[in-house]
């Protein structure tokens, strides 16, 4: 691994107390990036930051933030700048899911998922871009990276609101790429499929509660058998290389793209 590949990149990453966000933050710092770990789970954010600082190379700070609040997004950007001098990358990863069949969706389910997954992404992008614009254009682009999903592209019957929220992440990626290009900011994203994280472990149980699956682990097995070309589920380590590419200079000439890392689900 090139330990200086991401040197000079100061990255705000939301939802990095655990799951894919934590794995990515650690991986970025191993390659020289400085990272601000923003999460509503303050203890988990601290843990990720401590793991990074114990390893050396890139540095980390932890910030308690609720991504759905504009002020928290602004404060996380400010903390990144205060700690590292400027912000170069915003990676909007915080997200959640709570499955419901279409006719069972209620306002609470809708508001919770849309607010965390989509509205918060817009807030994070806007507050980050505001600071980048203030810093002024560079020879290389600032980067915004959004986390989508296979649900950004497939109508999955058990998670309609999640799909709506993640189609929204794709729209924010496209619209952001167009709107922010003149300021020297690129906007891309990546879209995982099934990744074994705390989110999926909860989803696995919730799918039994709504009557879609009968036993734990069945959802994994069904998806691997029926939808994936690569016949296994994935882990955060499967995602981190693409995430690192998108925050690195190797992707400088890309904007408005959502890369699928889903074992071939999206082509089915
Ligand atoms: N796990 C999968 O299979 C999968 C597949 C496709 C896309 N995704 C997406 O990847 C991203 C990361 O998912 P994960 O599986 O690592 O999830 P996870 O549950 O392991 O981690 C999500 C993190 O987001 C944080 N978070 C939630 N609400 C927040 C809020 N209001 N403010 C601040 N932080 C908040 C949580 O505390 C947690 O640390 C999400 O956007 C998710 O939708 C996950």
Just name the CATH architecture: 3-Layer(aba) Sandwich
Number of helices: 8
Q: Strand fraction band?
A: 5-15%
Averaging pLDDT over every residue, what do you get?
97
Small molecules bound in the structure, each named once: nicotinamide-adenine-dinucleotide
User: Order of helices and strands, N to C?
Assistant: EHEHEHEHEHEHHHE
Stretches with pLDDT under 50, minimum 5 residues: none
Termini, distance in Å? 33 Å
Q: Write the CATH fold name.
A: Rossmann fold
Which structural class do the helices and strands define?
alpha/beta
Helical percentage: 40-55%
* Number of structural domains: 1
Radius of gyration (Å): 18 Å
Strand order of the largest sheet: 3-2-1-4-5-6-7
Beta strands, count: 7
Keywords: Oxidoreductase
GO molecular function, one term: oxidoreductase activity
Protein name: SDR family oxidoreductase
Family: Belongs to the short-chain dehydrogenases/reductases (SDR) family.
Structural overview:
The protein has about 270 residues and is α/β, with parallel strands linked by helices. The protein is built from eight helices and seven strands. The protein has a seven-stranded parallel β-sheet with strand order 3-2-1-4-5-6-7, with helices on both faces. It is globular and about 50 Å long. The mean pLDDT is about 95. Bound molecules: nicotinamide-adenine-dinucleotide. Nicotinamide-adenine-dinucleotide binds near residues 44, 195 and 197. Nicotinamide-adenine-dinucleotide (NAD) binds near residues 14 and 192.
Task: Describe the secondary-structure layout.
Layout: E1 10-14, H1 19-30, E2 34-39, H2 42-55, E3 60-64, H3 70-84, E4 89-92, H4 107-135, E5 142-147, H5 160-180, E6 185-192, H6 198-209, H7 218-226, H8 236-247, E7 258-261
Parallel strand pairs: 1-2, 1-4, 2-3, 4-5, 5-6, 6-7
The structure holds nicotinamide-adenine-dinucleotide.
Keywords: Oxidoreductase
Pfam families: adh_short_C2 (PF13561)
GO molecular function: oxidoreductase activity
């Amino acid at each position: 691994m090139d330990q200086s590949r991401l040197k000079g990149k100061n990255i705000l990453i939301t939802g990095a107390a655990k799951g894919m966000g934590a794995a990515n933050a650690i991986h970025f710092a191993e390659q020289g990036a400085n990272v601000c770990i923003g999460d509503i789970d303050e203890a988990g954010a601290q843990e990720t930051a401590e793991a990074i600082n114990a390893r050396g190379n890139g540095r980390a700070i932890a910030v308690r933030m609720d991504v759905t609040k504009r002020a928290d997004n602004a404060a996380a950007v400010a903390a990144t700048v205060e700690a590292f001098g400027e912000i170069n990358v915003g990676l909007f990863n915080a997200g959640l899911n709570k499955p419901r069949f279409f006719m069972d969706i209620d306002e609470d389910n809708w508001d919770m998922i849309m607010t965390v997954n989509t509205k918060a992404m817009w807030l994070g992008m806007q507050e980050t871009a505001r600071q980048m614009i203030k810093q002024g254009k560079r020879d290389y682009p600032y980067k915004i990276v959004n986390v989508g999903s296979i649900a950004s592209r497939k109508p999955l019957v058990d998670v309609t609101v999640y799909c709506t929220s993640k189609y929204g992440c794709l729209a924010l990626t496209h619209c952001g790429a167009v709107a922010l290009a003149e300021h020297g900011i690129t906007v891309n994203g990546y879209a995982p499929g099934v990744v074994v994280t705390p989110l999926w472990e909860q989803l696995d149980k919730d799918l039994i509660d709504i009557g879609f699956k009968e036993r734990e682990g069945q959802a994994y097995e069904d998806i691997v058998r029926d939808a994936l070309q690569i016949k296994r589920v994935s882990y955060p380590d499967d995602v981190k290389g693409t995430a690192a590419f998108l925050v690195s200079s190797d992707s400088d000439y890309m904007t408005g793209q959502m890369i699928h890392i889903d074992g071939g689900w999206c082509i089915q």
